[in-house]
């Protein structure tokens, strides 16, 4: 082999090594960037509810369906809020979240409005400590019903609270929610 072809082979090997090293450095940089991505606000916080020590209860004749509703609701915690939204991919507003959960977990079609949901037939629950897992919970004020969520038990409910937020789990008797709780509605039983 002559001197010129040996030099070309060495240059080729050096070039291949440099490309491999560059690819490795690039891959490591991407992995490091993913590992250091910004953290989102926590969607799960420890409960401070006075109802946290209550035994978990489900509707007497619909325990399985109530469990399906709870699992579906909990799986959606962290989904972005989107006004008018009613899918995990597009995000949820409060009534879109409840509508999606009930349609997919209980095969119950609900209207896409918290006020309309509040007017459907079902057992009205006036006291928070009488709620069972799977009950709809309604909030409002002087202008009527303006918000809905799904009670999961032990003083907690899942809901899509506001623009810029995510679906989250909150204490039903927390400072804001306690003052705006109107009633619950039992559709599963």
Describe the structure.
The structure is a single chain. Helix content is 37%, strand content 20%. It is an alpha+beta fold. The protein has a domain at 63-186: endopeptidase domain like (from Nostoc punctiforme) (endopeptidase fold (from Nostoc punctiforme), Alpha-Beta Complex). Strand 5 (144-153) and strand 6 form a beta hairpin. The longest helix has 33 residues, at 3-35. The protein starts with a helix and ends with a strand. The model is unreliable at 18-42 (pLDDT under 50). Belongs to the peptidase C40 family. Residues 63-188 form the NlpC/P60 domain.
> Strand count, sense and closure of the main sheet?
6 strands, antiparallel
CATH topology of the domain at 63-186: endopeptidase fold (from Nostoc punctiforme)
Strand proportion, as a percent range, falls in 15-25%
Contiguous uncertain segments of 5+ residues: 18-42
Tell me, rounded to a whole number, the average pLDDT. 82
CATH architecture of the domain at 63-186: Alpha-Beta Complex
CATH level 1 class label of the domain at 63-186: Alpha Beta
How helical, in percent, are the residues?
A: 25-40%
Radius of gyration based on Cα positions: 26 Å
Structural class: alpha+beta
Envelope shape: globular
Can you identify the CATH superfamily of the domain at 63-186?
Answer: endopeptidase domain like (from Nostoc punctiforme)
User: What is the ordering of alpha helices and beta strands?
Assistant: HHEEHHEEEEEHE
State the oligomer: single chain
N/C terminus separation: 88 Å
Read across the widest sheet, the strand sequence of neighbours is 3-8-4-5-6-7
Question: How many strand segments?
Answer: 8
How many helix segments? Answer: 5
């Amino acid at each position: 082999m002559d001197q010129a072809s040996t030099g070309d082979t060495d240059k080729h090997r050096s070039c291949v090594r440099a490309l491999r090293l560059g690819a490795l450095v690039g891959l490591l940089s991407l992995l490091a960037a993913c590992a250091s991505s910004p953290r989102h606000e926590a969607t799960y916080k420890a409960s401070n509810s006075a109802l946290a020590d209550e035994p978990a209860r489900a509707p007497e004749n619909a325990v399985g369906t109530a469990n399906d509703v709870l699992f579906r609701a909990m799986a959606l915690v962290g989904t972005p809020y989107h006004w008018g939204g009613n899918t995990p991919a597009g995000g949820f507003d409060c009534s879109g979240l409840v509508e999606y959960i009930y349609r997919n977990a209980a095969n119950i079609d609900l209207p896409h409005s918290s006020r309309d949901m509040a007017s459907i037939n079902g057992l009205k629950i006036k006291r928070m400590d009488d709620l069972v897992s799977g009950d709809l919970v309604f909030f409002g004020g002087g202008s009527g019903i303006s918000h809905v969520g799904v009670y999961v038990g032990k003083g907690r409910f899942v809901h899509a609270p506001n623009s810029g937020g995510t679906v989250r789990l909150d204490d039903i008797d927390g400072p804001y929610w306690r003052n705006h709780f109107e009633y619950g509605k039992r559709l599963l039983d």
